[in-house]
Amino acid sequence: MDEMFDKCLERLRDGESVDQILLSYPDQRDDLEPLLQVSAATMRVVNTVAMESVVKQHRLNTFMSAVTSREGRQDKFHWARGWYNSLGRSAVVALGLGVLATGTAFGASMASDGSVPGDPLYPVKSLREDISLRMPKSNLDRAKQHAHLANVRNQEIGQLVDRGRYDDAQQLVVQVTYHLSESAEILGVTITANVNSFELPSGKVSPNRIRSGLGRVRAQGDLKAPGKKSGSAITLEDQQKKLRVLVEAGVITQQQADEKVEMMKEKEDAKAELASYMESDVGRYERRGNLRMQRMADFQRQQMRLLQWQWELRYRAYVQALAYDGPPPWLVWIDSQVTSP
Amino acid sequence: MSRGNDAALTDEIEDLVKRAQKGDNGAFAGLYEAFHAKIYRYVYFKVSDRVEAEDLTEEVFLRMLESINSFKWQGYPFSSWLFRIAHNRIIDHYRKKGRQRTVELDDAGSVVGVNTDDMDRNLEVRLSIEQVDVAMRGLTQLQKEVITLRFAGGLSIAETADAMGKKDNAVKALQHAAIKKLRTTLPDHLVEQAVAQKNG
User: Fold this and answer.
1) How far apart are CA B40 and CA B43, in angstroms?
2) What is the pTM of this model?
3) Are A246 and A257 in contact (CB under 8 A)?
4) What residues of chain A lie within 8 A of the CB of B95, using their CB?
5) Does B36 contact chain A (CB < 8 Å)?
6) Do A38 and B92 touch (CB under 8 A)?
7) Which candidate in A5, A8, A45, A340 is best for mutational testing of the B interface (most B CBs within 10 A)?
8) pLDDT-derived band of residue B58, with 50, 70 and 90 as boundaries?
9) Shortest Cα distance from B15 to chain A (angstroms)?
10) Span A152-171, pLDDT tens digits
11) In a 10 Å sphere around its CB, with 0-12 CB exposed, 13-18 middle and 19+ buried, how is residue A10 labelled?
């Protein structure tokens, strides 16, 4: 039925009327007709949403200005950030300095450390994080900060489960993915992931189902990790060989080749340092998380385990991406088909 | 749109992306034109606020500009990649807003831009959009994601599946369940209008 309904929807999208489509399915007419009518109504209304033409033109101009100013300042690995970001960063830094200038705000800022979404001080925590990400610093520092924030979100997941707020905890997994993706992307690694990939079961699930679910998550995480596709890895050594050929052929100068190798080495060093930082940061929180889990009731512990597996899948893909011995960029697919195991 | 047209469009997008990756400014304008309306509609139904949707749509394209060279043709379409950027921007947006997941349409002031100058028609369209938006809030997150990607974003089943990291069959099942649910939440007069329009 899903398949048949989808075929009908495709025909609806192609401009056929509900009646025309139903002629092909006389036996299913009673079931299909109301659903197709609802679909047609929804499509019709959704398609009326459009940006006002004046606004659209203005936004297009902004975009094309960014396209034009991008020329000449973008290096191969996208380290450069544009004026657009710089302006935004300056504004937020100024705001942050203003906030931190008062003792009260500073106290509130520190007290917000243990807050979770929904707490009165959580917006202060979010602001501090935003400032920390936008303060002028190296790309490696920014990548570390995103990695750290993924850990902070993971801690908040534990705190929320502790309070029985499972839906809110589930939402935070999406932000874990976001921070890990951002962290990797700063160093040229694109991690694609499904951020709405699972729903927590509302009731208790048998341990066998949980175990089989975990098995699938792990298998998929491994299979889709980088370096598994044959022939896709190009090592630094391979790259150096290629550059030597290009220098000998007179395509590039020795200095250009040296600069390129230096840049690749710097990037590899940065990735190694980031992976090491992430490992120690995870370790800092591990004991606290384990203690919290021991205190939990059975159902809470089950929900926590499911959430932790979602974390682990993303963390493992992230670490493997950083450990991959080849030049960026590349892609890591996190195929999280597992819904409630 | 026929399958042949879909294939031609896919080729055209691929060509635009490759040219954009080489720094062709005109190709960026082409990609903007091809996806802007779809991304805006998708974002709008996620945030329910016109100005926020405009800002986020702009951010999506600026992000595309920053990272287009990291996109590789490795078995999934550019549209899925772009909608994933949009999805991540929306998540970031909610994080910054302190998890205020919904903006009540009544409080949102100017709700949405519509392409019509007729005041009465404009009002009617805005009301319809608001009713669809409210009806969609009855869907689960995944169901809503499928409907916004399919109907607002105009993605195919395969593209939606790639954007969500799901299998095609799972997306079809979610889509079917979502429409069944909308049948119970969408006002009857909207359905009657659609039927009347098709017949008349």
Assistant:
1) 5
2) 0.49
3) yes
4) 126, 175, 178
5) yes
6) no
7) A45
8) very high
9) 18
10) 999 999 999 888 888 788 77
11) middle
